[in-house]
Prior knowledge:
Layout: H1 2-12, H2 20-40, H3 42-45, H4 47-52, H5 58-78, H6 82-101, H7 118-141, H8 148-151
Amino acid sequence: MSQLNDWQTRLTSTDAPAATILVRLYVGAVFLFEGIQKFLYPDQLGTGRFDKASIPAPGFFGPLDGVFEIGCGMLILAGLFTRLATVPMVVDMLGALLITKLPILWGNAPLFTGKSGWWAFIHESRTDLAQLCGSLFLLIVGAGAYSLDARMHGPSTGIPAAERQPVRH
Length: 169
């Protein structure tokens, strides 16, 4: 049982400042809403988009991606197992960049016909890059003081661990 507690502590501990909630709200909300839209608009944003991008088994991977974005987005918003929730989202954003955006550089992106070159790539990649960076940030620092992860470890002082004074009894 001790190993499970150690694993959970490493996964959920955070000394990130309270302001981390701003990154969590942005990253979590975008993933949640994009995941929902994969089911609301499957032809444009779900299975149809995956098919047009030549992703194999679009009928499987489109909805699967939507489920992961919804589930991980909700966990990130709540600040619950945030580090764990960001891992599939980092993979998701790397896949989106490599499969759908990188081909823009060579002018053969099936989702972005007529667009090519560096500036078109950067423009179309902006949300994916922001989501990737936000997810990596949360993976590194954790959910922050205003999160369920932080509550699992008792009240937070808001002071980074390196700056805390030991409690003397």
